[in-house]
Amino acid sequence: xxxxxxSKRFSGDYKFEFTSRKGKTIFTSNSYELRFxxxxxxxHLKASLENSTFMKFKTSSGKYFFxxxxxxxxxxxxxxxSTLLMLEKGITEIRKYAVKSETLDFSSNDFVFPDxxxxx
Length: 120
Description:
The protein has one domain (3-105): PH-domain like, CATH 2.30.29.80. It has helices at residues 35-47, 84-97; strands spanning 3-8, 14-19, 25-29, 53-58, 64-70, 73-78, 102-105. 22% of the residues are buried. The chain has two helices and seven strands. A hairpin with a 5-residue loop joins strand 4 (53-58) and strand 5. InterPro entries: YegP-like_sf. This is DUF1508 domain-containing protein.
């Protein structure tokens, strides 16, 4: 099952990503000034996923990507895919798992692992 991951951009704004079961990013959201805006947008996406639109594009280098549109507002942009089939699999994963996916918050700057002191 996929997961929503909230994190901070270098600018200090918040974003969320939807990652696949294998941990690969499927799409990245727009920037938000406050963390709770991310949480609200994730819940809004889950509630209105059936009515959302996936606009598909092809880059000049031949890669594929999509934009996730919810209620006429662009919510997120996908990663680049090498084939149209891989893009379709990404969209299918969102449609299947996004509604029941959990949200993880990695937006604090606290390190998970303590500093290791080197002894000589």
